[in-house]
């Protein structure tokens, strides 16, 4: 079955009781038990809910996992996965990961005894140098947030396996439509469902899946024990959003390719980060392991001092955190999504104060281009 079809018909795509083509919202906290100590498939909605279950089956099928898990946010999903590790364990992760991931590790897990080393995960030599006797996992984003670095997932996962490490991949930017990390050797895949999977900036959610039964059992235990589960209303919204993922991603990346070319040629723009550009360092790897180059762009202006006036002058493109919605969103990572990472760490990773991240929406590309043009021409008043 083609992935575009699987997005619509995969998992549990209809109600088995009534045949409804949209799984109902089971707005309930608990379920009748006919006999003492013999619950049915569902007993309490933290442990399982039919609407959430339909979504979890879908993400598992889309990513090639054995079981899926839906959480109240992307960070809740990451929290459940990081809870697999013990005090004294060590992780290796990319140096430009999402700021919330860094904050969770630095402020929550590090005081509990989990350590980590941030490296340029494109460089196998840096991975080797960071490896210790206590290293348990390699945590990757590809494309990365916000610099759009491309990691050779197959090669990285093979290296991790040789060294007895788990490979965890945050697949939020690519989505399962463009990239399937489990098929490339990863052990666990994470998503902020808030972004492209939901697609309409109307929910907050996180997803995880694995193709290892033992890991699935442990993640499921953490999900139930920690309790940060996704409610039935948002589970329904997210499953509905996933049904249109294919057409949306095609539109996102078609627009992004045009906007990336426009920005590259603009005299006010100094540098553009987009894996679809032939001169992007990870272009060939992205072409090998992805179905397309996605809808995310990062760029820097020639005059960094104009960043604030530029983003504030935009009329169609919205200055806001988040990404992956049908509307175009723009932000400055150093001030917004990655502000929790200390300045010296950000700059060492290449995240300059003037770096701009653009989530290209599915509006008419001419309107987006005109909006960028007029904002780039705005001068201080």
Give a verbal description of the structure:
The chain has 381 residues and is an alpha/beta fold. The chain folds into two domains: 3-243, Aspartate Aminotransferase, domain 2 (3-Layer(aba) Sandwich), CATH 3.40.640.10; 245-377, Aspartate Aminotransferase, domain 1, CATH 3.90.1150.10. Helices cover 38% and strands 15% of the residues. The chain has 14 helices and twelve strands. Strands 1-7-6-5-4-2-3 form a seven-stranded mixed sheet, with helices on both faces. Strands 8-9-12-11-10 form a five-stranded mixed sheet, covered by helices on one side. Strand 5, helix 7 and strand 6 (188-192) form a beta-alpha-beta unit. Helix 2 (50-63) packs parallel to helix 9. The protein starts with a helix and ends with a helix.
CATH architectural arrangement of the largest domain: 3-Layer(aba) Sandwich
Strand order of the largest sheet: 1-7-6-5-4-2-3
CATH class of the largest domain: Alpha Beta
| Percent strand | 5-15%
- The CATH superfamily of the largest domain bears the name Type I PLP-dependent aspartate aminotransferase-like (Major domain)
**Average predicted confidence as pLDDT:** 96
The tally of structural domains comes to 2
Structural class: alpha/beta
Q: What is the tally of beta strands?
A: 12
**How are helices and strands ordered from N to C?**
HHEHEHEHEHEHEEHHHEHEHEEHEH
Helix coverage percent of residues?
Answer: 25-40%
Which spans of ≥5 residues are poorly predicted at pLDDT below 50? none
CATH topology of the largest domain: the name is Aspartate Aminotransferase, domain 2
User: The biggest beta sheet, please?
Assistant: 7 strands, mixed
Coarse shape: globular
